[in-house]
Amino acid sequence: MESTMRRRQSADPGRWVVLLLLTILALATIFPFVWMASTSVKPMGDVLGAPERLLPLTYDFSTYTKIWSEVPFARYFVNSLIFSSSVVVIALFLNSLAGYAFARLPFKGRNLLFILILCTMMIPFQVIMTPLFIIIYKLGMIDTYQGLIIPKAADAFGIFMMRQFFLTLPRDLEESGRIDGANEFRIYFRIMLPLCKPAFVTLGVFIFMGNWNDLLYPLLLTNSEQFRPIQAAIALFAGKYGTDYSFVMTGLLLASVPTIIAYICAQRFFVSGIAMTGIK
């Protein structure tokens, strides 16, 4: 019986069509990274003379040493790590607090306030960047870590995602905590948070990748190399080394490594976190 079912599955043409389409999509997704890595080790003659050639005739790895010596690339890298990691930690805490309140605590105007928060997701950053710059400037936080981190400390998408996840948890858990005399903060920290690992990891990856790859926001709030994140720095030195495409591609390739590592490490929680968030 089992062997018959396996033969039917292997003979199902629809399954092979889906597999073929997924393979094509995977190759299309991977190709830009392959092309970027190939360009980073091409001599300038190959880059300008035959840009369509995927594999270089000769390999030149000098840009990987040049990028560390000619620009403060390590400083940019550390700035992005501090900025992105700090935002992840603070945003996960604040978003989960707000999500728990909207999911579990009955208070007047809860639904209206939640809808207003969701409406902020439709406002593009270009609309608020001038008021944001004025506020940060008047607070004296331009070109500082706190000026980069604090405005990103919470967001509507994170609140929405955590609220949806808390809605999937059974109410018997918190009721048992109340029977034992626990207050809401104790229920949140001791009962709810340990169950939120898939949602935390998924949201953390989203926040980390979004802030690591952000360009306009750090360009707006930083002036010096001491606090400039890596994407803003690459955008600026791309103008200085604009014709040296191997150099620019090397910087982009190195900048993409942390986000790839973060996704690979969190992959086993990623799908379950998204799926469980949408159950309710």
Automatic annotation (TrEMBL):
<feature type="transmembrane region" description="Helical">
    <location>
        <begin position="187"/>
        <end position="209"/>
    </location>
</feature>
<keyword id="KW-1003">Cell membrane</keyword>
<keyword id="KW-0813">Transport</keyword>
<comment type="similarity">
    <text>Belongs to the binding-protein-dependent transport system permease family.</text>
</comment>
<dbReference type="GO" id="GO:0055085">
    <property type="term" value="P:transmembrane transport"/>
</dbReference>
<keyword id="KW-0472">Membrane</keyword>
<protein>
    <submittedName>
        <fullName>Carbohydrate ABC transporter permease</fullName>
    </submittedName>
</protein>
<feature type="transmembrane region" description="Helical">
    <location>
        <begin position="245"/>
        <end position="266"/>
    </location>
</feature>
<feature type="transmembrane region" description="Helical">
    <location>
        <begin position="112"/>
        <end position="137"/>
    </location>
</feature>
<dbReference type="GO" id="GO:0005886">
    <property type="term" value="C:plasma membrane"/>
</dbReference>
<dbReference type="InterPro" id="IPR035906">
    <property type="entry name" value="MetI-like_sf"/>
</dbReference>
<keyword id="KW-1133">Transmembrane helix</keyword>
<dbReference type="InterPro" id="IPR000515">
    <property type="entry name" value="MetI-like"/>
</dbReference>
<feature type="transmembrane region" description="Helical">
    <location>
        <begin position="16"/>
        <end position="37"/>
    </location>
</feature>
<keyword id="KW-0812">Transmembrane</keyword>
<dbReference type="Pfam" id="PF00528">
    <property type="entry name" value="BPD_transp_1"/>
</dbReference>
<feature type="transmembrane region" description="Helical">
    <location>
        <begin position="149"/>
        <end position="166"/>
    </location>
</feature>
<feature type="transmembrane region" description="Helical">
    <location>
        <begin position="76"/>
        <end position="100"/>
    </location>
</feature>
<feature type="domain" description="ABC transmembrane type-1">
    <location>
        <begin position="77"/>
        <end position="266"/>
    </location>
</feature>
